[in-house]
Write a structure and sequence with these properties.
The chain is α+β, with helices and mostly antiparallel strands. The protein is built from eleven helices and nine strands. The chain has two domains: 100 residues, Phosphorylase Kinase, domain 1 (2-Layer Sandwich), CATH 3.30.200.20; 227 residues, Aminoglycoside phosphotransferase (APH), C-terminal lobe (Aminoglycoside 3'-phosphotransferase, Chain: A, domain 2), CATH 3.90.1200.
């Protein structure tokens, strides 16, 4: 059987999952399954269960040490967001017990019928500049709503620890150093780590009231409505935590397409590459209107986001060198990592600023 038509769920796993679903008094007959695009960190599968197509998420074939912990984190966050104003896929059934499949935890969530603007285009949006612009603002609006969720009310107060911002630079420098243990990996290929990390330490703003962070908030992790300028769901919550929500805003801004400071190339056929999705100043205004947050230190958060995401993405390059990740994807992410570090350096060296737009 070719890879294209190979069942993404093994016979043994089907038997185990169905038994577990029955134990949860849930529909238990797994039908046709297909791999979905996206999700470089975990496996994403659409599967029919008793005539309803839902999404199964589980760790990759070559799991990271923290893969199960990350998926348990997703389960917790999606459960906490139930009933909130934050657009997200509804959690259906969650199995945090890795012994059910012998190694992997897994969960099922609803299948959201939207499209990913970083990977797809849409003729309705292509022909309507006003709709594209409104959709861009909707991305900032959804992030503002996330910042407003009361972490204590949804049971996540225990996730927050003092010193969130203080921990970021040393933690991610340690991650970059760890990549060097991989044969062929050169940390020197990531530019400006020393300069950017020093600036971030010297200019760190005071802590702000904690909130839920998505952890990877960008166009790649939202699904748009197919005909209306709405965010139907924010997806891929594996990096979620409780801390300073302005890091999510910095992440969105450093990854945002368009303008002279675009750090990540968009796929040519995607909506993100077509332009007109609101500019960064408009995103800042939309986010501030919803969240009420002080954005005076926005440049620091954009620089931290470029620094952190650049190091994070280069982990796929290290995994490729170790024979555990696809080469084409790894090279694309390595180039993006370099672009993100360059963007962070432009801020720290005074050549790029969003602060005036935020005031």
């Amino acid at each position: 059987m070719s890879d294209e038509h190979q069942d993404p769920i093994s016979h043994e796993d089907r038997t185990r999952i169905e038994a577990w679903l029955r134990s949860q008094r849930a529909p238990a007959k797994l039908g046709d399954a297909r791999r979905l695009s996206g999700g470089t960190q975990n496996v994403v599968i659409a599967v029919d269960i008793d005539g309803r197509e839902v999404v199964l998420r589980r760790p990759p074939v070559h799991p990271r040490p923290a893969s199960n912990a990350s998926l348990r984190r997703e389960m917790t966050v999606l459960s906490a967001l139930a009933g909130s104003a934050v657009p997200h896929p509804r959690l259906l059934w969650a199995c945090p017990d890795s012994t059910v499949l012998g190694r992997d935890v897994f969960y099922f969530m609803e299948l959201v019928d939207g499209f990913n603007p970083s990977a797809e285009s849409n003729p309705v949006y292509d022909g309507d500049p006003a709709k594209r612009h409104a959709a861009g603002l909707a991305v900032a609006d959804a992030l503002g709503r996330l910042a407003n969720v009361d972490v204590e009310a949804v049971g996540l107060a225990g996730w927050g620890k003092p010193g969130f911002l203080e921990r970021q630079v040393p933690r991610w420098l340690a991650v970059a150093d760890a990549y060097s243990a991989t044969a062929g990996y050169r940390s020197a290929d990531l530019p400006h780590l020393v300069e950017v990390s020093a600036w971030l330490r010297e200019n760190r703003p005071p802590d702000t009231p904690p909130a839920i962070l998505h952890g990877d908030y960008q166009l790649a992790n939202v699904l748009f409505h197919r005909t209306e300028p709405e965010v139907l769901a924010v997806v891929d919550w594996e990096m979620a935590t409780v801390g300073d929500p302005l890091l999510d805003l910095g992440w969105l801004l450093v990854c945002w397409p368009g303008g002279n400071e675009q750090a990540i190339e968009q796929l040519p056929e995607s909506l993100g590459a077509s332009g007109g999705l609101a500019d960064r100043a408009e995103l800042l205004a939309a986010y501030a209107a919803v969240s009420g947050r002080d954005l005076d230190s926005v440049d620091w958060y954009v620089a931290l986001a470029g620094f952190k995401l650049g190091i994070l993405l280069d982990g796929t390059w290290a995994r490729h060198l170790a024979g555990k990740a696809d080469g084409a994807t790894a090279r694309r992410l390595h180039e993006a990592a370099i672009g993100l570090l360059e963007a962070a350096f432009r801020i720290t060296s005074g050549r790029w600023s969003l602060r005036d737009a935020a005031l």
